[in-house]
Amino acid sequence: MRRYGKHTDEDDIRSRPNRKGTRPRTNIRPAHEDAAEGMVLTVDRGRLTVLMDDRIVMAMKARELGRKAAIVGDRVALVGDLSGKKDTLARIVRIEERSSVLRRTADDDDPYERVVVANADQLAIVTALADPEPRPRLIDRCLVAAYDGGLDPLLVLTKSDLAPPDKLLELYGDLDIPYVVTSREELENGGAADRVREQLDGKITAFVGHSGVGKTTLVNALVPEDRRRLTGHVNAVTGRGRHTTTSALALPLAGDDGWVIDTPGVRSFGLAHIDPSRVIHAFPDLEPGTVDCPRACSHDEPDCALDAWVAEGHADPARLYSLRRLLATRERKEGD
Fold first, then answer.
1. Looking at the DSSP assignment, which residues form a beta bridge with residue 77?
2. What is the pTM assigned to this prediction?
3. For the chain, which terminal residue's Cβ has fewer other Cβ atoms within 10 angstroms, N or C?
């Protein structure tokens, strides 16, 4: 072995070329102009089921997308093996611009935002009128998320055979939100599905609701079994109060005239990702009353003009209470 002293002649030292070091580096990424387009139907442990024309393709996200993740409803560009054959895998190289996004956090103290659905036209908020009891605060939170994300809300009230819908509908009557009231018998016989479908034709609709309200039962009634097989995943109702859907799943309506996106049952709907100043936009019945509010009014202080607005009969006091409850929750989070 050759040994060198302190004063070596560099010309005597043999150096091996570094192949990686001599490779030119660039920040330019391929444009993939010839990539094919598809729609993400579901995501499972890094594998995405994508609909391309008349076939299903399994895909994974390209490294060049970094931390940007594709979600159900996304329009994506794919390259690679697009045959859809068994054991083949395409690569998602681009996520197209989204027209709407439904986001939530686990609760109001959770800093991690969960993007649930992309490009949906409306949000169907499924609520039972009894067994379990309706939760207006959860409905309000879903409305906030819908308005903030660019989705139109739709109320779907189930189990009307157990309790009348009048009281709940009166609470949201001034909002002019479309609604459908169903019963358990109608769900079993298919009559409810026909009336709900009228609100879904030609649209992409995300369904949300807490466990036990009949959301998945309704989705199964809306989408025939042969249409559910398109994604290779069939949701089966396994029991009241149990989570029958573990990840968001896009399903085509009969006649390809719209999509239903079934989402996992929620126990809470956090709004940590939403700026408190935007919460008022989810209460269009109260928003006109803020005209006379002091500058930078939080709408939860003594000089707020909403108190007089509600006292004059322009809106239901329960709506103002709901707004301030949401604002108080958000303010506590902001102050932590």
1. 37, 94
2. 0.77
3. N
